[in-house]
Amino acid sequence: MKRAVALASGGLDSSTAIALARKQGFDIYALSFDYGQRHRFELKAARRVMRSLGITHHVVETIDLNVFGGSALTADIEVPKNRDPGRISAEIPATYVPARNTIFLSFALCWCEVLDAQDIIIGVNAVDYSGYPDCRPEFLEAFERLANLATKAGVECKSRFQIHAPLLHMTKAQIILAGTEAGVDFSLTHSCYDPAPEGLACGACDSCVLRRRGFEEAGVADPTVYR
Fold first, then answer.
1. Strand (E) or helix (H) holding 169
2. Domains of the chain, CATH where assigned
3. pTM over 0.70
4. Are 23 and 58 in contact (CB under 8 A)?
5. What span, in angstroms and rounded, lies between the C-alpha atoms of 122 and 108?
6. Measured between alpha carbons, how far is 168 from 135 in angstroms, rounded to an integer?
7. For residue 24, what are the CA distances in angstroms to 17, 88, 99, 196?
């Protein structure tokens, strides 16, 4: 089995991407981040999902992006609620965390070099998403080029790093169907940006809206517990 480092947020998308990579035969080394996010409850979900998928290598790295703020997830900025689905992908929202995926992928690349692994799994999606610039295929292509230019393994041609984004061109409904087939228990996942302290989803943030609509369109029962 080829080793791969996978970004695991505990959400619907990353959990599905990891389950699909497991089906393809990758030995997953999961990487989650406690970065000061208001929805830190997602880390509990990440641990639950990794255990359910039988993944034993799981690191939760702590980095404090609250130092910089600039996002509704890392600063005292209100999380947008009840936005029309048509607007969600039309603008970059307040929940965008500056350079988040660049930072996360850099950590994943570091671990890949140590593991002598060539593959990084990320659950980004460019169809049903919240307008984040670091979820676009152009970004992933650029980071892959950087990975092969800026590493010892890449310069010595010992490795050719690849970024795998299996959900990139799938709708949320398609992701849910694929995850269901791959054995993801979506009741263990967490997507809400502004959950109650006990983890109940708000039902009104962009992530909740997209998740709920995805289950409806997929014809799959939504196991999310909303407050």
1. none
2. 3-218 (3.40.50.620)
3. yes
4. no
5. 10
6. 8
7. 11, 32, 29, 36
Q: Which two tokens stand for residue 25?
A: 């035969």
Q: What is the pLDDT of residue 41?
A: 94
The CA distance from 15 to 8, in Å, is: 7
CA 201 to chain centre: 17
Helix (H, G, I), strand (E, B) or coil at 36: coil
Classify residue 57 as exposed, middle or buried by CB count within 10 Å of its CB (0-12, 13-18, 19+).
middle
- pLDDT tens digits along 78-107: 999 998 777 777 788 999 999 999 999 999
Long-range Cβ contact pairs of 80-89 (< 8 A, separation 24 or more):
80/205, 80/206, 81/194, 81/202, 81/204, 81/205, 82/204, 82/209, 83/206, 83/209, 85/209, 85/210, 85/213, 88/130, 88/131, 88/206, 88/209, 88/210, 89/128, 89/129, 89/130, 89/131
